[in-house]
C-alpha cells in the first residue's frame, strides 16, 4: 500500500523516486523544525528526518522481502533524503559557532562603545 502510494505520488508530481526522497526530506526537516520549535542548528529535526527515513526503508525491506534486499538502493534513498537536511544543519552549526567566537565578542564591544 505504501509503495503504491509513493509510486502514485511520484507520477502525480512528475518526479522520480529519487527526487521525491529529496523533496520529502526537506519538507520533513522544515515540519520537524516547526513541530519541535527548534532552529536549523538543532539535532532534533535532523534526527526526526533520519527516523522517518529509516522507518521508510524498513517498510520497503518488509514489503519487498529480505530475499530482494537491495542495500545500494536503500543507501541511495537514505543519502537523497538526508543530504540537504545535513547541509543545512552543518551550515547552521558552523555559523552559530562563528558568531560565538572571539571576533563576534570584539565586534559587539565595538558597536556598544560607539
Descriptive overview:
By secondary structure, this protein is mainly alpha-helical. Helix content is 83%, strand content 0%. It has five helices and no strands. Helix 2 (17-36) crosses helix 4 (71-99) and helix 3 packs antiparallel against helix 4. The longest helix has 29 residues, at 71-99.
Please describe the topology of this protein:
Elements lengths: L1 H12 L3 H20 L6 H22 L6 H29 L2 H12 L1
Which structural class fits the helix and strand makeup?
A: mainly alpha
List segments where confidence is low: pLDDT < 50 over at least 5 consecutive residues.
104-114
E-strand count: 0
Terminal CA distance: 65 Å
How large is the share of residues in beta strands?
under 5%
Helix content: over 70%
Largest sheet: none
Q: Supply Rg.
A: 19 Å
The coarse overall form would be elongated
Please, how many helices?
A: 5
Mean pLDDT: 83
Order of helices and strands: HHHHH
Short description:
The chain is mostly helical. It contains five helices and no strands.
List keywords for this structure.
single chain, 114 residues, mainly alpha
